[in-house]
Write a sequence for this structure.
């Protein structure tokens, strides 16, 4: 049965009250497609490619780590019938008036229902309230589903970093991709 999100509500994340529920939120994704980087001397392209078997990744979310939480200027939980089904955390950096999306996860059972879009609407309102000029985020070339989501939400590809991650710590090659959306 499809989950109902008719009583979906967003509210501020509270620590430590919400820590256990957040730690249980499944931050993973599985994908049959990725973007393979193709490099030229001064150019860079992303080519869509199938992967078989499908690729799996789980994002770390260290709720108990104060150094992690200190950058959460804005943190919101999406709840459906008392269950935590989504989370977004963001930071406002004043020097460049950007809101950085550090975390955005929706429980697998509640994906493709508009929960992620609602969390983006909420952070957009926050960004406007602090007079930010854009939302900005980092994702990876292997997170094909999230890239579809961000593009659909109006984010534009604004950069990459092929040396950001220590590849020896990763199960598959990953590069960082950056996306931004202006605040109007
Ligand atoms: C990315 C994520 C947050 C999207 O949340 P969501 O609640 O499923 O997204 P929505 O339902 O609001 O999607 C809005 C639109 O985005 C697009 N979209 C979302 N997920 C998609 C997917 N897997 N494949 C293709 N398009 C997708 C669709 O156009 C969708 O509209 P539609 O369902 O009417 O076609 C969710 O998939 C997730 O938690 N993924 C795992 C964690 C993750 O990767 N986080 C991002 C880290 S950078």
């Amino acid at each position: 049965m499809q989950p109902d999100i008719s009583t979906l509500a967003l509210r501020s994340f509270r620590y430590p009250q919400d820590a256990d529920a957040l730690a249980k939120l499944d931050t993973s994704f599985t994908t049959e497609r990725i973007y393979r980087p193709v490099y030229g001397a001064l150019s860079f392209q992303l080519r869509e490619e199938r992967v078989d078997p499908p690729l799996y990744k789980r994002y770390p979310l260290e709720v108990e780590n104060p150094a992690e939480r200190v950058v959460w200027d804005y943190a919101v939980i999406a709840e459906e019938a008392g269950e935590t089904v989504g989370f977004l955390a963001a930071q406002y950096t004043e020097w460049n008036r950007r809101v950085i999306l550090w975390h955005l996860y929706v429980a697998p059972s509640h994906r493709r229902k508009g929960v992620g879009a609602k969390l983006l609407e909420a952070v957009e309102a926050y960004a406007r309230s602090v007079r930010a000029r854009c939302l900005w985020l980092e994702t990876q070339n292997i997170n094909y589903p999230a890239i579809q989501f961000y593009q659909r939400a109006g984010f534009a590809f604004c950069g990459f970093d092929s040396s950001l991650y220590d590849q020896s710590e990763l199960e598959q090659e990953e590069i960082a991709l950056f996306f931004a959306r202006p605040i109007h």
Notes: The pocket of coenzyme A is lined by residues 27, 29, 104-106, 111-117, 139, 143, 145-146, 148-149, 152 (CB under 6 Å). The chain is about 20% helix and 40% strand.
